[in-house]
Amino acid sequence: MDLFVTEMIITIFCILGAVALPTLIVWLNNRRRINETNQRTQIVLAAIEKNAETDVEDLLKKMAPQKKLLKEKLLSKLLLGGIIAFLGAAILGYCIIQGFIGGMPTAALQQFSLFGAILLGIGIAFLVTYFVGKKLLAKEIEAEEKKMTTQA
Fold first, then answer.
1. Tens of pLDDT along 13-61?
2. What is the pTM of this model?
3. Cα–Cα–Cα angle for 77, 60, 28, nearest 5°?
4. Which of 8, 51, 54, 119 is the most buried (most CB within 10 A)?
5. 3-class secondary structure, 140
6. Cα(29)–Cα(26) distance, rounded to whole angstroms?
7. What are phi and psi of 48, to 5 degrees?
């Protein structure tokens, strides 16, 4: 009975991590975007009510969120890749230790090992994307930096 309960708990956590968490993240992100759009709409409507001659296009351009620079995008990939790769390596290390000690059931150990390997692979993919992007986009990043310095 104890082995069955442990496997069920591990299965539930895997399902939550693979299905529920990504769904929740997407839902929260869409909700945030909808709220931002509604706030911008309210601001534009208030500006039009106060002054009918307001240039709406100019106002929307000023209110538009700043785009992330290429360098910021690359650095966020580096950060995300480092965190995910570290988590994957930590889970794999934990599974190796538990395998030698014999403290976990084999099925649970296999599931955790697979989860750790997947996380490690995703982290390595983000790190590879960072280094390749850094090399390929070096000229564009330099041009963005020059543009930002001339604007400031």
1. 888 888 888 899 999 999 999 998 898 888 888 888 887 777 777 777 7
2. 0.59
3. 45
4. 119
5. helix
6. 5
7. -70, -40
**What is the rounded distance in angstroms from the CA atom of residue 111 to the CA atom of residue 7?**
9
Q: Residue 89: name the closest of 54, 50, 116, 126 by CA.
A: 116
- Token pair in block for residue 98: 């538990």
Determine contact, residues 151/127, Cβ cutoff 8 Å: no
User: Which residue in the block uniquely carries the two structure tokens 């014999």?
Assistant: 102
pLDDT, tens only, 80-103: 999 999 999 999 999 989 888 877
Cα 115 versus chain centre, distance: 18
SS3 68: coil
Residue written as tokens 């790190």? 127
Distance CA 15, CA 30 (A): 22
DSSP secondary structure letters along 42-59 = HHHHHHHHH-TT--HHHH
Q: Which two tokens stand for residue 60?
A: 């929307």
Nearest to 74 by CA among 16, 151, 152, 128: 128
Q: Which two tokens stand for residue 37?
A: 């759009």
State the amino acid at position 115 in one-letter form.
Answer: F
Least confident among 2-6, 21-25, 70-74 = 2-6
Residue 142 pLDDT exceeds 90: no
